[in-house]
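Reviewers of the previous submission asked for a worked example of the structure-prediction workflow described in the proposal, so we include one complete record here. The input consisted solely of the amino acid sequence. No template or homolog information was supplied to the procedure at any stage.
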Amino acid sequence: MIRHPRSPRAKTQEPRATALAETFRGRLAHGADAALYDDLVLYLLYQGAEPAMVRVIAGDEPPTRRFPDFATLAAEVRHYLAFPALGRPHEPAHVLALFFQIRRAFHFTIEHILGGSLPAARLRAAVWQAIFTRDKRRSGARSTSARTT
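From that input alone, the workflow returned the following structure tokens.
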């Protein structure tokens, strides 16, 4: 069973991504590419939340209505993404819901569509495409309520 598929390479990239996000954050006020910054920070936040999501999905956490690391995630969303240059704000609960949907889909697709053959890989890809669009902005990375204001 795949509990935590993060590669050692992904773990070494996190400190670099964090440093890059902090540098880029300082440049936002000077017209840096907000969409690129947004993508980088969402990647970074996902990587930070993934271990707790894996524990919840795998059943290693006791059942609860609260996500164990939500307060930390919410603080990081506000720290990195509360900038006028980014436009509409991200809602921490919506960010978590999107992350959880992605991780849960990955977990169950990998765990329940078995095989290393090309047809199995195509089936996993088709399931993934049926769940998500190719464009995360169209998938709703920003809060629905924020879009209407």
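The chain has seven helices and no strands. We consider this example representative of the routine output the project will generate in years two and three.
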